[in-house]
Input
Amino acid sequence: MRMEYLPDSWNKLVDVFLSTSVFVFLDYDGTLTPIVDKPENAVLSAESMRVLRRLRDKYCVGIVSGRSLEDVRSLVGVSGIYYAGNHGLEVSGPKINSKALGFERFRPVIREICSNLKSSLGDVDGVLVEDKGLTASIHYRLVSERDRGRVEGDFWNLVGGYVDSGDVKVTSGKMVFEIRPSVDWDKGRAVKWVVDSAGGGDSLIVYFGDDRTDEDVFRRLGEGDVGVLVSEDEGIESGAGYFLRDVDEVIEFLSVLSRLE
Output
């Protein structure tokens, strides 16, 4: 099914936003901030922070990211909202205790994998091995094309055994490998868990995301929920029903939503 451009659908959605309780969830990188070469350079603008605070005062708001919980919480810096880090493996927010999820046991194997990767790839310019506690990301956007084949080869030589043994699973994104525990858990399950834990089982869920890990949310949304893909390619295959073209359009839409009366 072809996605609709979200602003064009405003008239049919506005009554729904006004008539029910709403949870608004957003990815961070590529949704609230543009994709950048180095993760530490993805800084939320002052205007985006103001919009998120206004949104929080009206709806339940959550940030769902592949970054560690500590990292995304520090970058956003808005209190009174939900944060899901490491693709939903760790969660914080009002009335939430993520230790109940039971994923802490995976920290040692992630630490071991990262140590091995740093030893193998440490001499390759542009590689960043990011140990996020419960997951890891290997960024190679800044690696020369000449060395990318080596990065990919060394990565699979080192990580393949952990995948075969069922310890971890690997997904790939925009010049990045993501290593996660091999458990049946993803952003979509995390979003549903947060809503249920907060007592919002009948609430409308609105989710904004830009990459393949966000598809895990889109495919779990219920009838009437609103999935918004952030992409300039409106013809891309997605489980989202709507799209916005870029971060600026996301912030503009959230600003309008935050002032809705």
Remarks:
- Residues 184 and 208 are 22 Å apart (CA to CA).
